[in-house]
Design brief:
Layout lengths: L2 H13 L16 H16 L5 H13 L3 H5 L20 E4 L2 E4 L4 E2 L2 E7 L2 E5 L4 E2 L3 E9 L2 E5 L5 E4 L4 E2 L2 E4 L15 E9 L2 E5 L13
Parallel strand pairs: 1-4, 2-5, 3-6, 4-7, 5-8, 7-12, 8-13, 9-12, 10-12, 11-13
Helix pairs in contact: 2-3
């Protein structure tokens, strides 16, 4: 890790509020969808010879019996590189020093996410993410950088009273037919500071409806 990256990580860690005791990503309960993601990877691995049929059968049994994400993750660590794993449990701060950094897919989002950008671009896509808390604090340390948050419709974007966010563009939509936020709507709270940069929050594009659709 370069000196600049170490410095950025240190700034993020210093600025981030201390999280209350909470289960780690590996301790979170796995869903049926998480198990199916892992089983698909195992199926591909036995097809191309990375696993033998007995190994595949044994791992599939373990996948169905797994209760936590950590138990599932152990089944694919030797089959795919970190960036291609069925889900990402990397809880490190997000840093971008004159470069582009992104988090997307099925990743575990802690209750506090330190984000540091110096002249860089950070994109965090939470549409398939697993939130450890219904309220996620994004602790910003941004100078001349851009942070883009892509979140599902109906997620509330708020700014902490002590935050210094010079430019915020909130384009997050409500779900079709909704007139306001639900009482249990997830909240993304922006804290920290943004100097000479901007934060963009938006919903993903809705799929286009074709001209000819079957009933």
């Amino acid at each position: 890790m370069s000196t600049e990256s170490k410095w950025l990580s240190a700034v993020s860690a210093f600025l981030a509020p201390r999280a209350p005791d909470a289960p780690g990503a590996a301790e979170l309960r796995a869903s049926d969808a998480d198990r199916e993601r892992v089983i698909k990877v195992l199926a591909d691995a036995v097809t191309d010879g990375r696993l033998t049929p007995p190994e595949h059968e044994e791992r599939v049994e373990r996948a169905y019996a797994a209760r936590t994400l950590g138990e599932l993750a152990a089944l694919t660590t030797d089959l795919l590189p970190p960036e291609s794993q069925p889900f990402n449990m990397d809880g490190r701060p997000v840093t971008a020093f004159f470069r582009t950094e992104s988090r997307a897919g099925r990743w575990v989002v802690p209750s506090q996410v330190p984000v540091t950008s110096l002249g860089g671009r950070v994109t965090m896509d939470l549409c398939e993410a697993l939130l450890q808390s219904r309220r996620v604090v994004v602790q910003l340390a941004v100078m001349a950088g851009t942070v883009t948050l892509i979140v599902p419709e109906g997620v509330r974007i708020v700014t902490a009273p002590s935050a210094r966010v010079g430019s915020l563009r909130n384009e997050v939509r409500l779900p079709p037919g909704a007139t306001g936020y639900g009482p249990d709507a997830p909240v993304i709270e922006l804290a920290g500071f943004v100097f000479g940069g901007k934060v963009i929050a938006r919903s993903p594009r809705r799929p286009r409806k074709g001209l000819f659709r079957r009933p």
